[in-house]
Each structure stands twice: as C-alpha cells, then as structure tokens.
Design brief:
heterodimer; A: 636 residues; alpha/beta; Beta-Lactamase; Alpha-Beta Plaits; TIM Barrel; 3 domains; 10-stranded mixed sheet; 5-stranded mixed sheet; 51% helix; B: 205 residues; alpha+beta; C8orf32 fold; 5-stranded antiparallel sheet; 8 helices; globular
C-alpha cells in the first residue's frame, strides 16, 4: 500500500471516528435534554395540577373532572390521584403507541419514564397526592427526527470532509508523486530532472539529491558519448575532407558483405587522381589540397541524393563510394557527371592532362567477396583504366541464384517461411538468446538467404508481411526452444502503426511464457526514432525486449536517443567494437561500456570469427558474443 | 475547567466527610474558619452541641430546640445576601453567613431535624403567603399524621403553633423532597432542591 493510500485510510478512519463520536455525543445530548425536559414538564404538570386540585376543596368529582380535562390532551400515560393513605381515588390510563417511530430506533437507547408526584393540600390539610406519567411517543419522535437530521448532517459533512481530504492529500502529496515518478524513471534508466522543487523540507532535500544524482549520471553519459563520438571520428574520418577514411571503408564494406540483408550486393565507384606528385610540383601543395577538397565536394554533391551509400577517402588520391543494392547501370550517370566535373576542375588549374588525370572505375561486389580482394581489385583497376575514362570490372565470384517474385509471394501467403538460428553466448558459454534469420525454399529445395530475396521483398512492399511471417514462425517454435529468441524488424514494419498493433495483439495472445527480443538496426532506428521509442516502451511494458542491431556511432546524431529508447542490448560488429575499445595508444577506452552500463544495456559483439577477436574483446570487458567462431547459423 | 472542578471535588470528598445535616466535621470547621473567621467555628460547635444534646429530646423538644436555634439568626433577603432573586442556602452557608431568608431557615431546620431522627416524610416545605407582610414566605410544616393539623416552624413567629392558629399565613403548596421515594437525591425534579442537595453533599460554605 502506498503512502497516499495509507494516509487516506488513516485520515478517513480518524474523520469517521470524529464524525461518529460527534454524532453520538450530539444524540446523547439530545436524549439527555429530552429526558430532562420530559421530567420537568411532567413535574410542572403534577405541581400545577396539585395546586388546582387543592382548590376544589377535596371534592372527588371535581378533581376527577379536572384530571379528565388534563388527561384528554393525550400527552399522558397515566394520571393517578391517591388519598393521604395512598388509596386510589381516581385513575386514568392510556397505552403507548410506537407506530410513528421504528422499533429498531427506540431499542437503541433507554428513555426513562418519569413519574412525577405532587402533594395536594386543601388549606393546611393534606388531601393526597397526584402522580403524572407522560407518553413517551412525542419524545421518541423528536429524538427520531433529531437523529435523521443528525444523519443528514453527518453525511453532508462527511462528503465535504472526504472531498477536502482527497484534494488536500493530492495537493500535499503531489510532490511525493513526482518524486516517485522520478525514482521510477531512474530505476528504468530514464534520467529526468524534477523541475518542481517541493516546499516541504524533507521532500525538497530528496528531490534536490535525486536531481543532483541524475545530473551527474547525465553528465557522465554525455561526456562519454562525446568521447566515443570523438574517438569514432578520429578513427574513421579523413581530416582534410571530413569523409570516411580507409578504416571506415573497410569496416562498412565488410559489414555489407557479411550482412544477411540487401547491402551484401552492390557496386563500388572509385575515383583516382593520377599524377599528384606532378601537380604538387606544378601548382604547390595548397592548391592540390584545394583541388582534392573540391573534388570531394563534387563527389559528395553527386552522391548526397542517393540513399544507402558510403563515401570514403582511401588515401590522398583515391575516393570510393559504396552503392548498396545497386547495379552498374544505376551509377552510370553519377560516374559520368563526376568525371566531367573533375576534368573541368583539372582544366581550370591548367595542368598537363597527360601527367595529371582522373580515372574512374566501377567494381561489383557480392556476399562471396572479401574486403582485401576487393581492395586489391580496386588498386589493379586503376592501372587498367585510361586517363579521364570510366572502367568497369566484374568481381570474380558471383553465383547467380534466382528466386521468382511469385514464389516469394506464394511462400509468404502460405506462411511457409523457414528460420535459421544463431546463438548468442556469454563468457561462460551459456546461451543468452538465439537470433532468427529468415530463409526460403524454392520448389527444387534450393535454400535462399534473406539477401537473395530482400530486393524483391523491398520492390514489392512485402517487408511487413515477411516480418509477420518470421514473427509467427518464431513465436510458434519458441515453445520448443530452450532459449529466448531475437527477431529482426524491418524499417517498413517499424513505420507501420497497424503492424505494431498486430505485434502487440500477437504477443498478448502468446502469453508471457517466454521473453522475445525484437531488434532493429541502428540505421533503421535513426530513421524512425519516435516509432522505435513507441515500440520499445510497448515491449518493455509487455515484458519483452527491444534491442539495437549493427550499432555504430552516427556522425550526424548524438547518442541521447539511447537514453530514450533504452534498448536491452546493442549488437556491435566485433571489428568496430575492437577499434572503439582500444585507443591510439592501445589503452582501453571504456566510453562505450560506460554509456551502455548507464542505460543498463548489454553489449553483444557480433561477427566473431576467430579466438583472437573473442579473446581481445573479452579482455576488454565484453561479456556477450555472436559469430561463426562460436556457433554457425543453423536451420531450424 | 469542568474537569478541574471535578478533580478538586473528588479530592475534597476523600478528605472531608459529607456534612449532610450534621454533626459538622472538624475539617469543615477549619475550612470555614479560613473563609469566615473564628466566630463561625463557635456557631458550628454550638450546632454540634445541639445535635448531641437532642439525642435524649422528645419530638416536641427537638422541634422547639431546632426552631429556636435557627430563629436566632437574623433575616436577610436573597437580593441583599446573595445578590440574586432566589437562592437556597445550605445549612453550613446559613450558619456561616449567619443570615438568610425564609427558605434558608426551613432548609436548615429540615436537615437538623432529619439528623435528629425526625421522619422526613412528615416534614413539608410549605409555600405560604404572609398576610402581615403581604409577600411570599416559606415555613416548615410537621404533620404528626397525614390527616392532622400540622405544626408550623416559622422564623416570623418563633412559637410552634398548629396551622389552624396561624391565620396570618395562607398555605399555597406543600413540597416534600421524599414524596416519590425515600432517596432525597432522586426524589423530585424540583431544581432548587436538586441544586441544594448537591451543595449540601459537597459541604458548600
């Protein structure tokens, strides 16, 4: 029971006690007053009657008439006339009639029937006594009416008192409620500052202390986020142009190649400025740097309209752009435009075209390639290219597997997708969860991975349907799975409000038998932070997890979204993680770990392919791993 | 305030035994001495002596001695004595102040006779009209039997005479505190009597 309820209960009981006591006291007073009044009036009647009777000269018939006149008023039970020897001379009786007042009411209290006697004297001579006994009906009725008005007042005052109590308590405990909200938010790693400082001393001190603590944690988070971002920039940015550097190119290319998704295929556009030594001698370093800068600006300008691209400067003279999920034809226009504008730049500087020229090559990559062979091919391609021309080379291996659109649609409609799983382990080799990957079979039992059919899925807007298929399948097999399951959600699914509602309903019908982890890639999340926040909150409330896959620091956004989203874990490519954890002097840089610890999120290192990588990361404090070295993707 | 008064009363009740007509306890005398001076003690002692001597008195002697004892006290109206229209003084107050009106004589005589063992059912507070002074007056009537002519103990006429010889008085109403029951405290709803009885029990001075 919370404090508000406790105080309400105690105050209510106290108020009830006071009101009942007051009511009881009032009723008792009224009863006492009525009893006294009854006794007084009876005594007065007896006294007046005795004086009147004395004046009759002790004449019995006159006295009886006088008594009849008084008795017939109906207010008396009995009037009795006795002589000096206590013998009854005359008597009138009437029975009590309780019909006006409920029986239960009269049984609640005792009302004494007064018997008032007065001496009758005729001159000095005693004649006898007269005894008067009143009817109690009227007194009962007065008390009953009094009781009803008291009850009415009681309910009226109770209503006012409880309403006042309710509002006063709300007012008084408003600051406590805010403190509780802040405390709950802190427990949920949501660091909010309470701006309304309560005036109550104790509440004020606690609020100030919590605010101070929250500010401290926020500062730590921001400091480490800045540090991580700076370090990321240092590692992956070219100082002159602000583009990604060779490390960045390798990191991204590797990430794309091994990706299960559409980025695993595409084209790399390479721009090479040949004859830089000549240019330096001819026009000087400064002008050459300016040329390079302008060349990069031209490239950026041409590429910025294109989505899903990565630009990186491999060295002083080579710049490459990765176009994911694109064909040679798709970048033909851009290639030509860059070449044209680059030639214009060179011509402006009056450089000898034979000694200083632009060479552009296009290279296709696929999931069977590796980064080093692709880099070799890029180097080789320049020597095969004539000056100021574009040259295209095919990558060495690209097995062509085709899956038809109709087949995909029929599989999705029949809910016939298959799943593959890869386990995530902790340092003790315990399974944290298994990540689900989608697979499809064709009629010939050929197995297709996501990257084989995702372009079709995307082209035909089947992303939500595919995700629903995967979720249904994963939820179905979860009963037989010993570990938790992680499911990836696409951008389409995240941005589809009805799909999120569907997921909510689906999880509700599933029950709380197992925890499910829903992952979205960092790239997808940054496209839909609001939707991601909604989904994260919804899942948390339902007892499930929201997580970020393929996390890396984005140059254009700060890391505050992590505090808002509160992911259960971040999956980070092991190469990127290794780079981020080790600073330039080989000393561990704990910024990423501090950030994740402050929001109570785990770090899972992905793409672990050898023991050296796992060993290094484990030594650096990483506790969860995923990759072919630990466990291959297996079909379910 | 009420509670304080109650506590003081309880304390007094445990230290001073109730007078209730007499004899007057020593502690009451000391209290009276502090309030009214030494003279009052001699009156109280005289009263106690009267009670002591009355043990061997006949009924007539009891009536006569009590009537004489209190009739020595000078008359004073309530307005002058108590600054109020009507006040029934206790025998202690009457003796201590040594002045009072007709009700005070009747009350003091009633309690004294009661202490001497006279049947209180035969004693009546009689409201009368004094023809001589043309004002309301009160006397104590003693009825030997219920049908007999009562003897009148009066402060105007110190002689105890049968009522039939008191032409100067017109009887209006007879009041006996024990008319309903033997218990005087519960006898009646007569307010003046009830207040008086409480003060007597408290040895009010």
């Amino acid at each position: 029971m919370n404090l508000y309820k406790q105080i309400s209960l105690i105050m209510s009981l106290f108020l009830l006690f006071v009101l009942v006591s007051v009511m009881s006291y009032n009723f008792q007073s009224a009863k006492k007053y009525a009893q006294e009044e009854l006794a007084n009036s009876t005594q007065n009647t007896a006294t007046y009657l005795s004086i009147s009777l004395g004046k009759t000269g002790a004449e019995t018939s006159e006295m009886s008439t006088m008594i009849n006149a008084v008795f017939d008023s109906g207010n008396f039970q009995e009037i009795r006339l006795l002589d000096t020897h206590k013998k009854v001379i005359f008597q009138r009786n009437n029975s009590e009639d309780h019909i006006k007042v409920p029986q239960w009411f009269t049984s609640m209290y005792e009302l004494k029937t007064p018997h008032s006697t007065a001496t009758i004297s005729s001159g000095w001579k005693l004649v006898g006594t007269v005894t008067v006994v009143p009817m109690l009906d009227n007194t009962h009725l007065k008390l009953y009416n009094n009781f009803l008005s008291l009850l009415e007042s009681f309910f009226f005052f109770s209503l006012i008192a409880f309403t006042l109590l309710f509002f006063l308590l709300r007012l008084l405990l408003a600051s406590l409620r805010k403190m509780t909200e802040q405390a709950e938010a802190v427990s949920n790693n949501n660091f909010i500052i309470n701006q309304d400082i309560p005036s109550t001393t104790e509440f004020k001190e606690v609020t100030l202390a919590m605010n101070k603590m929250v500010t401290k944690v926020k500062n730590i988070f921001e400091k480490e986020a800045n540090s991580a971002k700076e370090y990321h920039k240092l590692l992956y940015t070219d100082a002159l142009t602000g583009l990604g550097n060779r490390n960045y190119f390798e990191l991204k290319l590797n990430e794309f190649i091994i990706s299960e998704e559409i980025e695993s295929k595409g084209v790399i556009l390479n721009i090479f400025l040949e004859g830089i030594s000549y240019a330096n001698k001819s026009i000087g370093h400064e002008k050459v740097d300016a040329l390079l800068y302008e060349l990069c600006s031209v490239i950026k300008q041409q590429v910025q309209k294109e989505e899903n691209t990565v630009i990186a400067r491999l060295d002083g003279t080579k710049t490459s752009i990765i176009f994911t999920n694109r064909q040679k034809e798709d970048i033909e226009e851009i290639s030509k435009e860059i070449l044209t504008q680059a030639i214009v730049l060179l011509e402006k500087l009056n450089l000898n075209a034979d000694k200083c020229c632009i060479k552009i090559t296009q290279l296709r990559y696929g999931s069977n390639d590796n980064v080093s062979s692709l880099l070799n091919q890029i180097e080789k391609s320049f020597s095969l290219t004539k000056k100021n021309t574009i040259f295209f080379i095919n990558s060495n291996t690209e097995t062509s597997i085709n899956i038809g659109t109709e087949l995909i649609k029929s599989r999705l409609n029949a809910h016939a997708v298959s799943l593959a799983m890869q386990d995530v382990y902790d340092i003790h080799q315990n399974i944290l969860h298994a990540e689900a990957y989608v697979r499809l079979y064709d009629e010939n039992k050929n197995l297709f991975e996501a990257r084989d059919f995702l372009p079709i899925i995307q082209a035909h807007n089947l992303g939500v349907q595919l995700d629903k298929n995967v979720i249904n399948h994963a939820l179905k097999i979860s009963a037989s799975s010993s570990s938790e399951i992680a499911i990836n959600l696409s951008l389409d699914f995240l941005q589809d409000a009805s799909a999120i509602q569907w997921l909510k309903e689906r999880l509700r019908t599933q029950g709380r038998t197992k925890v499910f982890n829903f992952e979205v890639s960092n790239h997808v999340l940054l496209h839909s932070i609001a939707q991601a926040n909604y989904l994260s909150t919804m899942l948390r409330e339902m007892g499930h997890n929201f997580a970020i896959d393929r996390f890396s620091i984005d140059e254009n956004s700060n890391l505050n979204y992590l505090q808002m989203i509160q992911p259960a874990y971040l999956k980070i490519d092991s190469c990127y993680l290794r780079d981020m954890l080790k600073d330039e002097n080989g000393v561990t840089n704990p910024a990423l770990q501090i950030i994740t610890e402050s929001i109570d999120a785990k770090i899972i290192a992905t793409n672990i392919e050898n023991s050296e990588m796992k060993g290094f990361l484990q030594k650096a404090g990483i506790k969860y791993f995923q990759g072919s070295y630990l466990g291959e993707v297996r079909l379910v | 305030m009420y509670l304080l008064r109650l506590i003081i009363l309880i304390l007094f009740a445990t230290h001073i035994s109730a007078f209730n007509g007499g004899p007057i306890p020593e502690k009451v005398m000391k209290k009276a001495e502090r309030k009214y001076g030494g003279l009052v003690v001699s009156r109280f002692l005289e009263y106690n002596t009267l009670l002591e001597n009355s043990k061997h008195f006949s009924l007539h002697q009891k009536l006569q001695s009590v009537n004489n004892f209190f009739n020595k006290i000078p008359f004073k109206s309530d307005v002058k004595n108590w600054k109020t229209d009507d006040y029934w003084a206790t025998p202690l107050e009457f003796l201590a102040r040594y002045k009072g009106d007709s009700e005070d004589y009747v009350i003091a005589k009633y309690f004294a006779l009661k202490t001497m063992g006279v049947d209180t059912q035969k004693l009546y507070f009689t409201y009368v009209n004094s023809k001589k002074f043309k004002r309301p007056h009160m006397v104590l009537s003693y009825f030997i039997t219920v049908d007999s002519d009562p003897f009148i103990l009066d402060n105007i006429n110190p002689e105890i005479l049968p009522a039939s010889q008191r032409d100067d008085l017109t009887p209006i109403y007879n009041f006996n505190p024990t008319i309903n029951t033997q218990d005087e405290s519960q006898a009646t709803t007569h307010k003046n009597w009830k207040k008086l009885y409480k003060r007597v029990k408290r040895n009010k001075l």
